[in-house]
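=== Structural record ===
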Amino acid sequence: MDDNQQLEAIQRQLDVIASQLARLADDAERQRPWSELASEIAPTLRTAHQAAQAQLAEIKPYVNQEDLFYLMRHFACNAGDLIAALEQLESLRDLVADAGPLTVEASESLIERLDELERRGYFAVAREVAALVDVFVRELDQASIRQWRAQVPELMAAAKDLGQPETMALAARVASRLRQALQKPIERPPSLWRLLMRLRQPEARRGLAIAVELLAALGATRHLDGASPEVDTDHAAKGDL
């Protein structure tokens, strides 16, 4: 082998060595970030390990290795149920997040409505009604309440009659005329003859007839309640004659 061949062989070996050195340099360059990350994480991992050891040392009297293994095995066996429960919690969280604006809007609307009712006096009336009910509860016993309950149909019938348009119109006219009569100044009481002269007016005779009918109805009601009717002795004597 001459010198040229030897030089070529040496050159080839040098190229192989250079390629291997370049490959090692590339591997070292790729591993450098991981080395730096490991050097940065190492203090944190040591601190976490020390904290974990301290916590485990505190709970060691209460938990043993068998309990930990049982808990881990129980978690592993119920992993599907735990995942389903977490999914339900996530759905509930999404529902609360979606319903939050609606709840706020409904609360604001309710507060505005309650404020309007307060300004219109509904709550004041409710308080007075509550006080009235309290008075009824204190003053009435059970027997009185039962008696009132038995009379409710009659009261409802009377209220129905009073609610008729003609009855309301008549009550309004009577109230108006009564107010006018009370407001009209009277210098001196009218004489009996003047009052008898007023009976010549059709309106007065019509009112007197209504008053007589009302008195008759009241007398009939008293008779139905069990009171003995009073007998006019003069008319009875004339009837006997």
